[in-house]
């Protein structure tokens, strides 16, 4: 048996097992993943391990990725859509070091994409696996704090409380005010929390070609949505589910119909809206799409220097 | 199960113990990904070269690969009578996986079935509870020939529109049992079919239609 040893570790320092986790832990997680796939939307309890990063930084997603990752995989990690924020960079580095796998920022080239709170704009294909980092897997938790009760509610398919919550949104605000972690019903059975992705991404979960795996490390739950599974965002006949829309295109790449982040530029009210999916935005700019703010000096900073090449 | 006396035949067979995966980490990972894809896309055939040789009959290479991939001390396993009768097969599984071997299906987390045509009813295995539907058994059927037998229509999660699936041998009432298994979703067992070089699976979520007789 040969283990890939990262070049940055001296030979006498030894190395981790491939992808950090020991083999028994991987088997345990793998079994939980298979159950999750067999019962779409049901949260499978698993013996979550302590990871060399704090809870809240994607320990669930990292464990799922470590259990499925192979030497020939290409890994992409995004945090709120971006490849270059702290969480994404740290997790990518973690697997480069412990598994020696190829990593990429390109959505197209990745075989496994670990994500925190976004789904790439580009449609994923059937050879890809999307791994979500989940903070609170239980969609009913803020309505009913007792695990014994929420478990019973799932068993009895008793989701009236969730509809009451959405109804109260309408009664107070005139519309369903839930904008992220928007509850969905998976394959007509389990109500599931799609993790705190903006509800903008909910339609992508429905009938997705790629397999979706969700890992919650602190809460010790794994769940899954197999490919081509009907996933419905909860709503009412007279208040149908709607996604956010933006009145302006991306300031950098002019993309419309994508999820945008607001970026404050100065203390005089200057701001711009840019793609949350950094790879999507970069690819569009490389293909010559330029947004109204692309020439702005602030845009040069935001776009990580790629703008300079274009000028 | 822990108190089982070491019988002489098992002790003798230790010398003939077949090897496990050549590369335990990556072979198990590779095998798992095939099983996962099979489970996520019911009815599709996933090709995998188990790379195990000289296995004690009636254990097959693919069945053994799935066992090495998924079993350990946490997973009580039930062996069908043909497997349980083979001391070599039993000691192979005991040595390489450490899984406790149970005598009755209802205590099993996994079942290894070398003679699928004689398989006892699916209802004899743990089905999970309404609160914990995951606490159910996974059956591994060996010696399957895909594309033979009744042509079944599959629908459900993991399947775009409709999939076709056929495999043999299975007991005569097996597909009725699979339909009944799906009807009690989310409770139920999951079945992994293993052939010579291919794996397929039917999770409990798959709806099955049989051809009109």
UniProtKB/TrEMBL annotation, chain A:
Q: According to its UniProt record, which reaction does this protein catalyse?
A: alpha-D-ribose 1-methylphosphonate 5-phosphate + AH2 + S-adenosyl-L-methionine = alpha-D-ribose 1,2-cyclic phosphate 5-phosphate + methane + 5'-deoxyadenosine + L-methionine + A + H(+)
Sorted alphabetically, the keyword list is: 4Fe-4S, Iron, Iron-sulfur, Lyase, Metal-binding, S-adenosyl-L-methionine
Annotated stretches, region: Disordered: 288-311
EC code: 4.7.1.1
Q: A Pfam family matched by this chain, by name? A: PhnJ
Does Lyase count among this protein's keywords?
Answer: yes
What's this protein's family per the entry? Belongs to the PhnJ family.
Q: What is the protein's known function? A: Catalyzes the breakage of the C-P bond in alpha-D-ribose 1-methylphosphonate 5-phosphate (PRPn) forming alpha-D-ribose.
* Annotated protein name in UniProt: Alpha-D-ribose 1-methylphosphonate 5-phosphate C-P lyase
Automatic annotation (TrEMBL), chain B:
Matches recorded under InterPro entries: PhnH-like_sp, Phosphonate_metab_PhnH
The record's keywords, sorted A to Z, are: Lyase
State the SUPFAM superfamilies in the record: PhnH-like
GO MF term set: lyase activity
Q: Which Pfam families match?
A: PhnH
Q: What's this protein's name?
A: Phosphonate C-P lyase system protein PhnH
- What does the organism's lineage look like at the top? Bacteria, Pseudomonadati, Pseudomonadota, Alphaproteobacteria, Hyphomicrobiales
GN (gene name): phnH
């Amino acid at each position: 048996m040969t283990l890939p040893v990262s070049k940055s570790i001296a030979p006498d320092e030894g190395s981790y097992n491939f992808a950090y986790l020991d083999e028994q832990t991987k088997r345990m997680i793998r079994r939980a993943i298979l159950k999750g796939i067999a019962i779409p939307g049901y949260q499978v309890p698993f013996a979550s391990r302590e990871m060399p990063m704090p809870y809240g930084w994607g320990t669930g997603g990292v464990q799922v990725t470590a259990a499925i990752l192979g030497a020939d995989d290409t890994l992409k990690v995004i945090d709120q859509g971006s490849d270059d924020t702290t969480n994404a960079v740290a997790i990518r580095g973690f697997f480069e070091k412990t598994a020696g796998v190829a990593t990429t920022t390109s959505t197209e080239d990745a075989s496994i994409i670990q994500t925190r709170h976004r789904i790439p704009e580009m449609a994923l294909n059937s050879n890809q696996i999307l791994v979500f980092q989940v903070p609170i897997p239980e969609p009913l938790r803020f309505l009913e704090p007792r695990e014994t009760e929420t478990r019973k509610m799932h068993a009895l398919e008793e989701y009236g409380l969730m509809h009451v919550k959405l109804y109260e949104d309408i009664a107070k605000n005139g519309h369903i005010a839930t904008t992220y972690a928007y509850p969905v019903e998976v394959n007509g059975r389990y109500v599931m929390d799609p993790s705190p992705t903006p509800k903008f991404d909910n339609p992508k979960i429905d009938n997705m070609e790629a397999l979706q795996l969700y890992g919650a490390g602190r809460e010790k739950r794994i769940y899954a949505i197999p490919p081509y599974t009907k996933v419905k965002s909860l709503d009412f006949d007279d208040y149908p589910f709607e996604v956010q829309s933006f009145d302006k295109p991306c300031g950098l790449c002019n993309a419309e119909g994508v999820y945008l982040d607001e970026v404050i530029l100065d203390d005089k009210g200057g701001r711009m809206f840019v793609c949350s999916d950094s790879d999507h935005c970069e690819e569009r700019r490389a293909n010559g799409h330029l947004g109204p703010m692309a020439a702005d000096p602030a845009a040069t900073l935001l776009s990580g220097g790629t703008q300079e090449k274009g000028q | 199960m822990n108190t089982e006396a070491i019988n002489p035949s098992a002790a003798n067979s230790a010398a003939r113990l077949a090897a496990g995966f050549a590369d335990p980490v990556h072979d198990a990972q590779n095998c798992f990904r095939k099983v996962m894809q099979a489970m996520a896309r019911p009815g599709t055939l996933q090709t995998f070269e188990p790379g195990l040789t000289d296995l004690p009959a009636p254990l097959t290479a693919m069945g053994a690969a799935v066992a090495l991939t998924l079993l350990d001390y946490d997973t009580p396993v039930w062996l069908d009578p043909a497997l349980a009768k083979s001391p070599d097969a039993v000691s192979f599984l005991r040595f390489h996986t450490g899984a406790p071997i149970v005598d009755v299906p209802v205590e099993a987390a996994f079942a290894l079935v070398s003679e699928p045509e004689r398989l006892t009813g699916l209802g004899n295995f743990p089905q999970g509870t309404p609160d914990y539907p995951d606490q159910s058994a996974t059956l591994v059927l060996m010696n399957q020939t895909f594309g033979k037998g009744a042509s079944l229509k599959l629908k459900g999660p993991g399947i775009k529109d409709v999939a076709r699936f056929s495999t043999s041998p299975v007991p005569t009432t097996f597909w009725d049992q699979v339909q009944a298994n799906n009807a009690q979703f989310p409770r139920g067992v999951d079945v992994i079919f293993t052939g010579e070089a291919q794996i397929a699976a039917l999770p409990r979520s798959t709806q099955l239609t049989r051809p009109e007789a």
